[in-house]
Amino acid sequence: MSSTPLSPRLEVQNLRRVFDGQAVVEDVSFSIPAGQVTCLLGPSGCGKSTTLRLIAGVDRPDAGRICVDGMPICDETSYVPPERRAIGLMFQDFALFPHLSVAENVAFGLKGGGANTRARVGELLEKVHLSRHAQSYPHALSGGEQQRVALARALAPRPRILLMDEPFSGLDERLRDGIRDETLGLLKDEGTAVLLVTHEPHEAMRMADEILLMRAGRIVQRGAPYNLYNAPVDRAAAAFFSDINVLKGRVRGALTPTPFGDFLTPGHPDGTEIDIVIRPQHLKIDFDRAGRGPNPTAQDGTPARGIVERARFLGRESLVEFRMEVDGSVLRASVPNVFLPKPGTPMWLMIRRDRCFVFPATGRA
Ligand SMILES: Nc1ncnc2c1ncn2[C@@H]1O[C@H](COP(=O)(O)OP(=O)(O)O)[C@@H](O)[C@H]1O
Ligand SMILES: [Mg+2]
C-alpha cells in the first residue's frame, strides 16, 4: 500500500452493520491520524466491538467504507482480508499462546527468524520491561506482565493501526492507571494510530487525544476529553462522565425560573420543559450565618437553602446530600478533601451559570 501524506492513517465513512434486521452500527464516520490515540467510548452493547471487528476485517459491513492511508481496504468493490490490513489487535483476554515463550509470542507476527526479528523482539521486551522474562511462559507471568507481552506482540510488526478492545479490563483495578500510563507512553513512542474501545470514561479521559462517544450504534459526540466533559451534547452525555444533579424548569420568555433564580434559556419555545444539569463538584456551598446566607455574585444566581441529609468521606472528596427546603428535592455536592457537616445543618447552595448545562427535558425524573 502506498501512502498519501495528507490522508489520515485510518478513515471510516458511514459504516453500517445490521444483525437480525437491527442496525448495531449506524452511520459511523471518523478518522485517526498517525500518532493519535482515539477512544471509542460507550455503554456495553452500543456497538463498539462490532465497529472494531469491521475495521479489523473479521466482519464485513453492510455499508460504508474503510481506508488506510487513503487506500480503501473495504468498500463496495474492494475487500482486503484481515491479515493483509497491517492492523494490530489487542483484546481484553490478551490471547497469548500458552505453548510459546514470551519472546516467541512477541515474534509471532514477524516474518522470518533472523537478526531483524531478534532485534525488534529485544527492543520491545526492553520497552515493556520484560527482557529478563524472555524465555518464560505466559502462565508464569502476572496479569500486568501478560498485558505487556500482548502489547509488545501487537506492536512488533509495526502495524499502521492498533485496535484495542477493553485492553485493561482484565487487570486489577489498583494496577490499571499505572499500566494505562505505561501503555500510552509506548503507543506514543511507536507513533501508530490507535483506536481503543472502552466503556470507562475515566480510562478514555486518561488515554485519549480524542474521544468518540457512542450510543446505540451511533457516534453522538466527538472531541478532546476536556470538551466532552465540559460541553456535553445532551443530558445522557453529561451523565456518562459523572453523577449529575438535574433541576427541572419550564421556559418563560427566554428564561427558565428555578429556586436558584432565572436561567437564560434562549432558543427554546415558551413552555418547553428544561433540564438544568450540574455536576456535584460544581455546586457552590455556603454557610447559613444564622439565616442571612451568602452574598452571591451575578454568576452564582440566587442561593437556595438546603438541609444536610448525609455526608460521606470518599478519600479525595466528600459527598454531601442536601434536601432543598423549597421543594424537597435532593442535590449532591462533592467537596474536595474532608467536609462532613452534621445531618440537619442548614446550608446555602448556588448554581454557577458558567458551570451548568441546559438541555430540553428528556422525560426522565
Ligand atoms: N454476531 C452477532 N450476531 C448478532 N448480534 C450481534 C453480533 N455481534 C454483536 N451483536 C449485537 O450487537 C450489539 C452490539 O454489540 P457489541 O458491538 O459487542 O457492543 P459493545 O462492544 O459496545 O459492548 C449487541 O446488542 C450485540 O448483542
Ligand atoms: Mg465490546
UniProtKB/TrEMBL annotation:
**Which UniProt key words apply to this protein?**
ATP-binding, Cell inner membrane, Cell membrane, Ion transport, Iron, Iron transport, Membrane, Nucleotide-binding, Translocase, Transport
**One Pfam family from the record:** ABC_tran
Q: Does the keyword Ion transport apply?
A: yes
GO terms in the biological process aspect are: quaternary ammonium group transport
Ion transport as UniProt keyword: yes
Q: Report the PROSITE patterns cross-referenced here.
A: ABC_TRANSPORTER_1, ABC_TRANSPORTER_2
Q: Which InterPro entries match?
A: AAA+_ATPase (IPR003593), ABC_SmlMolc_Importer (IPR050093), ABC_transporter-like_ATP-bd (IPR003439), ABC_transporter-like_CS (IPR017871), ABC_transpr_FbpC (IPR015853), Mo/tungstate-bd_C_term_dom (IPR008995), P-loop_NTPase (IPR027417), Transp-assoc_OB_typ2 (IPR013611)
What are the annotated GO cellular component locations?
ATP-binding cassette (ABC) transporter complex
Q: Outline the extent of the ABC transporter domain.
A: 10-241
A GO MF label: ATP binding
Protein name as catalogued: ABC transporter-like protein
Organism of origin is: Thioclava atlantica
Q: What is the lineage of its organism?
A: Bacteria, Pseudomonadati, Pseudomonadota, Alphaproteobacteria, Rhodobacterales
